[in-house]
Amino acid sequence: MIIYILILILVIALSLIDSHKLNKVDIFLFIFLIGISGFRYNVGTDFPGYVYYFNLIDKGLEASVEPGFIFISELILKMGLNIQAVFLVFSILTMFFLYKGLTYYTNNEYIYKPVLYILMLIYTFFPSLNVIRQILAAVIILFASRYIINRSFIKFAFWVLIASLFHSSSLIFIILYFIALKNYRRITLIGVLIISLLVVNGGLLYKALEFIHYNLNFLDVGGYLQKYLEESSYNNTEIEFGLRFIINLLVLILFIIFKDLLVRNERTLLIFNFFYLFILSYVFAIDAYVFSRFTYFFGIFMAIAVARFGVIFDNNSRRIIEYVILILYSILYIYIIIYNPAHDIVPYDFNFDLKVKQY
């Protein structure tokens, strides 16, 4: 647990240098996170699963995992390194695309850096200790989303295909490309949110997906419905109407109310829309866990959106709001690392041995 407290202290220290701009000194945070993630040992729910996949690949057996993981594993094996090197490579790639994406969206935009980083840790870094393939895919999408704003479909599609090599759910963004910059009315956003909550509360979404699974099985490409309709104990603890959901839902409602003040250009419009999709996919996931896979893609956009909330206030009020949300999200951060056994991120252990042992 101490290691996660040190990360929070580092975030606060970097913010003392400049709390509203990402600069070169911030690279040290990402390097530190690379080390924490890349050299972790038996940390994260999926850690044993990736070890299992790696061992299958080492033996020349088939592993039911995306080709990106297989390619990196085979490359690591050819270099005479072990599974720890795979985690390190994934960590380096994840932090690289995350940093590039964040610098794009925060350049020349108001941002409150400590809140951005705390939420980044909660919704991107902590999950990256578990679902390493999908988080890498998610930050590649974050990086690639600039091509939505630039209206460059070919470049965006290229990066989506790269992301899909690590998690096939990335392909949904080919469709989202065409709606990501739609400026929806407040009544539409609120209406869809209310209807979604009612549908989920009645269990209708799960029933609809169950009907598709049993009667229209050809639509279940890749067997995702079969896999995720079968709830596990991990799913039940990860997705629920809990404290985090209530906080994020209330923040989203405030964003919808003050939408005209928050959305000032196409970059901030995309951030707002993907924050909205984060909440919507979270709502759907409560009834059908398969939708939780999409929260990983949108979580970082939520972090950017919330870190911009102070822009609607004048300078004097903004400082107070910044301190308030910093305290609230710091408490949430500490709460999560203490009371979040679903992620298996505590206790933390490490391993610096990257070489395959010869016997």
Give a quick rundown of the structure.
This protein has 19 helices and no strands. With 359 residues, it is mainly α. It has one domain (2-343).
Task: Report, as a whole number of angstroms, the end-to-end distance.
Answer: 35 Å
Uncertain regions spanning at least 5 consecutive residues? 231-239
Q: Tell me how many strands there are.
A: 0
Number of helices: 19
Which range best describes the helical content: under 10%, 10-25%, 25-40%, 40-55%, 55-70% or over 70%? 55-70%
- Encode the helix/strand succession as letters: HHHHHHHHHHHHHHHHHHH
Q: Mean of the pLDDT scores?
A: 88
Output the radius of gyration: 20 Å
Query: Helices and strands: which structural class?
Result: mainly alpha
Give the overall form: globular
Strand residue content: under 5%
The structural domain count equals 1
Largest sheet: none
How would you summarize the topology of this molecule?
Elements: H1 2-17, H2 27-38, H3 47-58, H4 67-78, H5 83-106, H6 113-128, H7 132-144, H8 146-149, H9 153-164, H10 173-176, H11 186-201, H12 204-215, H13 224-229, H14 233-238, H15 243-257, H16 259-262, H17 266-287, H18 292-307, H19 315-338
Helix pairs in contact: 1-2, 1-6, 2-5, 3-4, 5-7, 6-7, 6-18, 6-19, 7-9, 7-18, 11-17, 15-17, 17-18
Could you please describe the fold and organization of this structure?
The chain is an all-alpha fold. It has one domain. Helices cover 69% and strands 0% of the residues. It is built from 19 helices and no strands. The protein is globular and about 60 Å long. The two termini are 35 Å apart. Mean pLDDT is 88; it is low at 231-239.
